[in-house]
Every structure is written in C-alpha cells, then in structure tokens.
C-alpha cells in the first residue's frame, strides 16, 4: 500500500476529473440518488470496490437523495496514492449502477461537498483545549496529541476544532469563527453568494488559501481552499 505523502496540488489534479474534490485532507464526492435504498446500494458497491484494505480509508454518509463518499488515510490523516486509486475504483463501480460521482460545484446541486471547522482564538491554548475536548466528547487528530493540536469527532460527524494563538485580548471581536473548506472551484461562487446576502469581505490577503468574511454584525467566517498552501 503506497502511503507516500502527496502535495495538495497533486491530490486535486488526480481526482478532479473524477468529480471528487480535495478539501481539508480528504477527497470527497457525492452520488445523487432517488431513494435511501439506492444510496445503500451505492454504499455496498463502494465498499466492495474498496475491498478489505480500503475499508479504513472510506467513510459514507447516506441520505435519501445522496450518498456522500470520503477517502483519507487513517494512519496519516491525509490522502495518499492508495486513496487516489480507491477514488478511481469507486467511481467506476458507481458508474456500473448507472449513477455518477458529482462534487456539485457551481450551484449544480444542493451545495458542493465541503468540510467545516470551528476555530477558537485563545491566549492560552493548552489551558482551554482540555475543556473543549471534554465538553464535545472529542479526541486527538491522528498523530497529533500535543497541548495545542486540533481536536476531532471520533465518530466523524461533527466539525473539527482548531486553536489560533492570540497575542493580546480582543474583547471587541468575536473569538470563535467557522472555517468552511470548499472545493477550489466552488470558492468564488460561495464568496459571491455570501456578499450578496449582506456579508462583507474583510480580507483576501491570504487568498486563495482563505478569505475572511463577516456578517452584518461583524461575526466572522472564512472560506478556505487547498490552494496556496503547499
């Protein structure tokens, strides 16, 4: 099993034509379906295509209108050549059902595939991290258990939590914000929609890695992509 660490650009290039997208250490796609039973059939076919070696890399969220498929290495919390191979195998298996993998970018579905993180600004990360770990029932990210490292939902349902170091108190600014990691080709539309809905662009200095947006009362959110990070 090839566990070589690929760059973000290599991962994205390898799966984009399959209608998978690389977001936040995961490759993810959606399969539109007509029923929960059909979603279950997609899941069964994907599991069979992944095989015993690939089951640990694959997670599936089943709904009545779609099956959302995600791949990443549990050992590295990243995408390796093995997961790229699995994406090819699973896409081929889905097509045998007369269905398709679809990242749903550009407003072609309910929304594109994405992942959400909660970012917490703190003066003393080590002091607050145990509280968030306990209150959320979360655990350490694979290979990262330090006093300032991110926290993840062991059931894979809730958003990850990461901590951002503050140098001084900021009583007039919110200190918890959402990071919405979207496909690189979805970001322009998502930002435009947020601005059209009354939002403000606070900064694009780090784009295309992330854009900082705020609602009408100054509450912040970041739209992020893999680009600009390698």
TrEMBL record:
It holds the Pfam family Glyoxalase_6. It is an enzyme of class 4 (lyase). Keywords: Lyase. Its EC number is 4.2.1.96. Coiled coil: none annotated. Gene3D superfamilies: 2,3-Dihydroxybiphenyl 1,2-Dioxygenase, domain 1 (3.10.180.10). GO terms for molecular function: 4-alpha-hydroxytetrahydrobiopterin dehydratase activity. Residues 118-224 form the Glyoxalase-like domain. The keyword Lyase applies. This is 4a-hydroxytetrahydrobiopterin dehydratase. It comes from Nonomuraea africana.
């Amino acid at each position: 099993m090839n566990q070589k660490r690929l760059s973000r650009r290599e991962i994205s290039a390898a799966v984009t034509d399959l209608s998978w997208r690389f977001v936040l250490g995961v490759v993810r796609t959606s399969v539109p379906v007509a029923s929960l039973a059909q979603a279950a059939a997609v899941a069964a076919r994907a599991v069979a295509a992944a095989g015993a070696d690939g089951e640990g890399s694959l997670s599936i969220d089943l709904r009545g209108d779609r099956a959302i498929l995600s791949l990443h290495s549990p050992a590295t919390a990243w995408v390796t050549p093995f997961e790229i191979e699995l994406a090819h195998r699973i896409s081929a298996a889905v097509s045998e059902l007369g269905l398709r993998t679809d990242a749903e970018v550009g407003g072609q579905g309910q929304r594109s595939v994405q992942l959400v993180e909660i970012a917490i600004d703190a003066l003393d990360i080590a002091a607050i991290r145990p509280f968030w770990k306990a209150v959320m029932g979360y655990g350490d990210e694979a290979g990262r258990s330090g006093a300032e490292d991110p926290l993840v939902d062991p059931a894979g349902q809730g958003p990850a939590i990461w901590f951002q170091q503050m140098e001084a108190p900021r009583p007039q600014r919110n200190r918890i914000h959402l990071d919405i990691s979207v496909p690189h080709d979805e970001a322009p539309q998502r930002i435009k929609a947020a601005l059209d809905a009354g939002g403000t662009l606070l900064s694009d200095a780090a784009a295309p890695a992330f854009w900082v947006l705020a609602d009408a009362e100054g509450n912040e959110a970041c739209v992020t992509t893999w680009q600009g990070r390698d």
